[in-house]
Amino acid sequence: xxxxxxxxxxxxxxxxxxxxxxxxxxxxxxxxxxxxxxxxxxxxxxxxxxxxxxxxxxxxxxxxxxxxxxxxxxxxxxxxxxxxxxxxxxxxxxxxxxxxxxxxxxxxxxxxxxxxxxxxxxxxxxxxxxxxxxxxxxxxxxxxxxxxxxxxxxxxxxxxxxxxxxxxxxxxxxxxxxxxxxxxxxxxxxxxxxxxxxxxxxxxxxxxxxxxxxxxxxxxxxxxxxxxxxxxxxxxxxxxxxxxxxxxxxxxxxxxxxxxxxxxxxxxxxxxxxxxxxxxxxxxxxxxxxxxxxxxxxxxxxxxxxxxxxxxxxxxxxxxxxxxxxxxxxxxxxxxxxxxxxxxxxxxxxxxxxxxxxxxxxxxxxxxxxxxxxxxxxxxxxxxxxxxxxxxxxxxxxxxxxxxxxxxxxxxxxxxxxxxxxxxxxxxxxxxxxxxxxxxxxxxxxxxxxxxxxxxxxxxxxxxxxxxxxxxxxxxxxxxxxxxxxxxxxxxxxxxxxxxxxxxxxxxxxxxxxxxxxxxxxxxxxxxxxxxxxxxxxxxxxxxxxxx
Length: 548
Fold this sequence. Notes:
548 residues; 21 helices
């Protein structure tokens, strides 16, 4: 009948298994780990740090798909990434891997997280975090890690899984006290953490870089903390991920490493050779037929082409169609010498924002083709603007591209005084303005004794469509020069057009993503200049002087 009494009860409790379907609480007992018959491959003597990580990951089971039940096999580009990050002489603290979608990033992330939780990189009371834009995205990696843990008896015996909290605790073994936890950008959990490893999944979709910045600053609490960002590229050069990638590629910071796999920007996106070259998992666990089908659809449907280029070719391109090609705008970048332009004929455009939004003023010199834009925003709303508009407003203010006015509402008096100063210096022929919101500014201008050559400029198709066409023509023909103001470039990328029955187009503020005030001011300035005939040329400019 077996043992009875207290000893039998202790033995029964020791080997009791808690059902998988139930959440295990903090008091859950550690199950007896099965005895190993041989040393794991990753624990063999003589392996380098990178070799141990690779051997550990390749000992993990594949839990789903056509290779379910087999062990993982890293592809050459994945091995290269690990060797660069975990090399014996590596000083990398933040690693970026940017690859097209579908190339096995979830499996690699899961393996790396487990290496720091239960494998060769584990340490007592370690903290491993998976960050994502929301709980659903973070849950994808959590589910993969849990599936692997439950498929490895030694891991399963040592871990307590709390599904509701998306948290894994290590209750036994060399890394006892360690935790794996998911974080989402919409939950302010980053403060107070001390990560041994964090992995940020699809950072390109994050609205701001706040959570990443918090995790990076938390790395100082450990001597060997490592951070990773694994994502397709963001839509534009201003996203925090793009800034990181560009910084890493300059090679000035040995603690920052980037593996970027993307199609060349000048390659034919629909050529099979192009998308084969930048999808290293093709024919391994990425279906070539599916990718071929998507490429064919992208050729037929222009609105899908942008998504295909961004997600499957990892190109830095917005998934929505733009009004003007960003490369055409960037080709117009140059030097705008304001001192040399003082006194030359110019025209202005003034777009007044609400009390808490951007107000922008543009000047355009048609003979030189030069454009300059000034913008104002309340200082106390800069952080809010970053959150809602997904743009570095505080950085732009520090760089002088935004003039921050005190308080939570735009100081119309400061704007009026600045406009008076600029107009006194450059003497614009006329300034186009939208009558919305002009009453308060006009009152302040009167109080300060400032007279501006204001000219009403309607925001309907009658005035804005010709102005939009004039601006577009100059950009596409390279007949405009701007000073690479990042705020203006960002606002240009936000523009959505509205068309009438005749096909005339103008910016649509309600449909446009984020703010477009700076570019609207620029369009009005260029449009107003296009309405004015050029000054009469002197007869001497054509024939020269005649001596009798």
